[in-house]
Amino acid sequence: MHTGLVCRWWMVMQIIRFPGSGRRRARAGEAEQPGELVPLEKRRGPRAVKPEERSAGILPLVVDDVHYIVNRTALLRGVSFRLPAGRRTVLLGYNGAGKSLLLRLCHGLLAPTSGQVRWEGALGGQALHVARAQAMVFQRPVLLRRSVRENLLFALRARGGGRGRAIMQRVDEALALAGVEHLAERPARALSGGEQQKLALARAWLLQPEVLFLDEPTASLDPAATLELEALMMRLHEGGCTLLFSTHDMAQARRLAQHVLFMHNGLLLEDAPAEAFFQRPETPEARAFLAGELMP
Fold first, then answer.
1. Of 105, 114, 43, 40, which Cα lies nearest the Cα of 264?
2. What is the tens place of the pLDDT at every residue in 32-65?
3. Helix (H, G, I), strand (E, B) or coil at 121
4. What is the DSSP letter of 11?
5. How far apart (Å, rounded) are the C-alpha atoms in residues 142 and 146?
6. Exposed e or buried b for every residue in 256-282, given b needs 16+ CB within 10 A?
7. How far is CA 132 from the centre of its chain?
8. In the prediction, which pLDDT does 40 show?
9. Measured between alpha carbons, how far is 281 from 276 in angstroms, rounded to an integer?
């Protein structure tokens, strides 16, 4: 199949697919090996969602005792947490902790080996609405071999956004929001890394997701581009978008996070307000991480 058609098919699936959130039992022989660490939610269990906490959309997101096992190796072990509406939450941890994997599970790109990923808002049971109410930005955005403007138009049309002046006006607003209107006719794949990430965030804003997942969105950017992306993330949040993102930039985490999820070796070890985590981490693993020390 032609590369362009593959990219087109992949983007359509990202925009209109039904994220998987099913549950299945681990197959025989897939049981995880017991570790020395005790995951946070194994100690106290996920809290039930109260009626007043349910949004009019799909949030909160509840991750309940999620395991992910590949070739009998447990990559995630008993992860449980809640993502409420309106919060900026950062995923922290060493390389290989399971952050990117967890983001893909939350977004529905992967299904857990066991456990559940479920949306408990008023519309959380409607698969089509769930698919349209969330988006994800990767470290390396997937862009079509088209202009910046055409990438945005394609995303809207794939969602049934229509044609004509109204859709063009929305695209112009997205270009202006991201500060890339002067690049509108440039091939999207010819943009710099920072410009491509701006385009990816503009595309996310255009689709008006209720929740946005970001996997180290500024990992390869210089300090100036990083601050520009952070400002755009804040504008998305101020517009009502809930953010869950991973980063290795501790200064960025301190600037943006309202809440922290700290992972280590596939376990969720801390789930705390950002101020409490950065000032009084509870586990030796988190303290070592914040001190820049290596851990096995």
1. 40
2. 343 445 455 444 445 555 554 556 799 999 999 9
3. coil
4. H
5. 12
6. bbebbbbbbbbbbbbbbebeebbeebe
7. 14
8. 53
9. 7
Tokens of 229: 């992306």
Give the tokens for residue 135. 């988006």
The band of 16, judged by pLDDT with boundaries at 50, 70 and 90, is very low
Q: Return d(Cα 228, Cα 46) in angstroms, integer.
A: 36
Tokens 């509406």 found at: 85
In order of 90, 214, 242, the CA distances from 250 in angstroms are: 10, 16, 20
Output the average pLDDT for the chain. 84
- Amino acid occupying residue 193: G
Q: What ranges in the chain are assigned the alpha helix state H?
A: 3-16, 40-44, 99-107, 127-132, 148-158, 165-178, 193-206, 223-238, 250-256, 274-279, 284-290
DSSP 47-98: PPPPGGG--SSSPPEEEEEEEEEETTEEEEEEEEEEE-TT-EEEEE-STTSS
Residue 187 carries which DSSP code? Answer: B
The structure tokens listed for 100 are 């990117």
Cis amide leading into 46 (omega within 30) = no
In a 3-state reduction of DSSP, which class is residue 122?
coil
Q: Look at the pTM and tell me if it is higher than 0.85.
A: no
142: nearest Cα among 21, 10, 273, 277: 10
Cα gap 193→197, rounded to integer Å: 6
Q: How far apart are CA 89 and CA 156, in angstroms?
A: 27
Taking the C-alpha atoms of residue 243 and residue 180, their distance in angstroms, rounded to an integer, is 22
Work out whether strand 61-70 and strand 73-83 pair parallel, antiparallel, or are unpaired.
antiparallel
CB-based burial label for 227 (10 Å; 0-12, 13-18, 19+) = middle
